Amino acid sequence: MPRHLYHFRGKVLRNRIEQAGFACVSEKSLPFDPFYIAMLSEKYRSGKDRALLGLWKGFGFWWKTFKDERGSSSKLFIFRKG
Question: Domain limits of the chain?
Fold first, then answer.
Protein backbone atom coordinates (compact mmCIF):
# COMPACT_ATOMS: atom_id res chain seq x y z
CA MET A 1 0.00 0.00 0.00
CA PRO A 2 1.31 3.46 -0.70
CA ARG A 3 1.08 4.55 2.94
CA HIS A 4 3.93 2.29 4.13
CA LEU A 5 7.63 2.98 3.77
CA TYR A 6 8.69 -0.55 4.71
CA HIS A 7 7.16 -3.99 4.96
CA PHE A 8 8.90 -6.31 7.40
CA ARG A 9 8.70 -10.05 7.55
CA GLY A 10 7.27 -11.07 10.92
CA LYS A 11 10.37 -13.01 11.89
CA VAL A 12 12.67 -10.05 11.16
CA LEU A 13 10.45 -7.59 13.03
CA ARG A 14 10.17 -9.89 16.02
CA ASN A 15 13.94 -10.47 16.16
CA ARG A 16 14.73 -6.76 16.00
CA ILE A 17 12.29 -5.84 18.74
CA GLU A 18 13.48 -8.71 20.95
CA GLN A 19 17.08 -7.51 20.46
CA ALA A 20 15.93 -4.15 21.83
CA GLY A 21 14.89 -5.86 25.09
CA PHE A 22 11.25 -6.67 24.51
CA ALA A 23 9.50 -10.04 24.73
CA CYS A 24 6.75 -11.09 22.35
CA VAL A 25 3.57 -11.76 24.31
CA SER A 26 1.29 -12.52 21.38
CA GLU A 27 1.22 -12.72 17.59
CA LYS A 28 -2.08 -12.80 15.73
CA SER A 29 -3.17 -12.47 12.14
CA LEU A 30 -5.81 -9.91 11.21
CA PRO A 31 -8.37 -12.00 9.31
CA PHE A 32 -10.35 -9.18 7.68
CA ASP A 33 -7.39 -7.08 6.56
CA PRO A 34 -6.98 -8.83 3.16
CA PHE A 35 -10.45 -7.62 2.16
CA TYR A 36 -9.69 -4.00 3.06
CA ILE A 37 -6.24 -4.04 1.42
CA ALA A 38 -7.56 -5.62 -1.79
CA MET A 39 -10.40 -3.09 -2.01
CA LEU A 40 -8.00 -0.16 -1.56
CA SER A 41 -5.53 -1.64 -4.05
CA GLU A 42 -8.23 -1.95 -6.70
CA LYS A 43 -9.26 1.65 -6.16
CA TYR A 44 -5.66 2.93 -6.40
CA ARG A 45 -4.88 0.70 -9.37
CA SER A 46 -7.90 1.61 -11.49
CA GLY A 47 -8.92 5.01 -10.14
CA LYS A 48 -12.47 3.66 -9.89
CA ASP A 49 -14.51 2.21 -7.08
CA ARG A 50 -14.24 -1.52 -7.77
CA ALA A 51 -15.30 -2.75 -4.34
CA LEU A 52 -16.76 -6.05 -5.54
CA LEU A 53 -13.60 -7.02 -7.39
CA GLY A 54 -11.59 -6.02 -4.33
CA LEU A 55 -13.79 -8.13 -2.09
CA TRP A 56 -13.40 -11.12 -4.41
CA LYS A 57 -9.61 -10.78 -4.49
CA GLY A 58 -9.57 -10.25 -0.72
CA PHE A 59 -11.50 -13.48 -0.30
CA GLY A 60 -8.83 -15.29 -2.34
CA PHE A 61 -6.04 -13.96 -0.12
CA TRP A 62 -8.03 -14.72 3.01
CA TRP A 63 -8.69 -18.27 1.85
CA LYS A 64 -4.96 -18.92 1.32
CA THR A 65 -4.25 -18.07 4.96
CA PHE A 66 -7.40 -19.59 6.48
CA LYS A 67 -5.70 -22.77 7.67
CA ASP A 68 -2.18 -21.43 7.99
CA GLU A 69 -1.90 -18.00 9.61
CA ARG A 70 1.84 -17.91 8.98
CA GLY A 71 1.10 -16.80 5.42
CA SER A 72 -0.88 -13.78 6.54
CA SER A 73 0.60 -10.44 5.52
CA SER A 74 -1.29 -8.54 8.23
CA LYS A 75 -0.27 -9.36 11.77
CA LEU A 76 -0.57 -7.86 15.19
CA PHE A 77 2.40 -8.27 17.53
CA ILE A 78 2.15 -7.47 21.22
CA PHE A 79 5.41 -6.93 23.09
CA ARG A 80 6.31 -6.05 26.65
CA LYS A 81 9.52 -4.67 28.07
CA GLY A 82 11.24 -7.57 29.61
Answer: 10-81
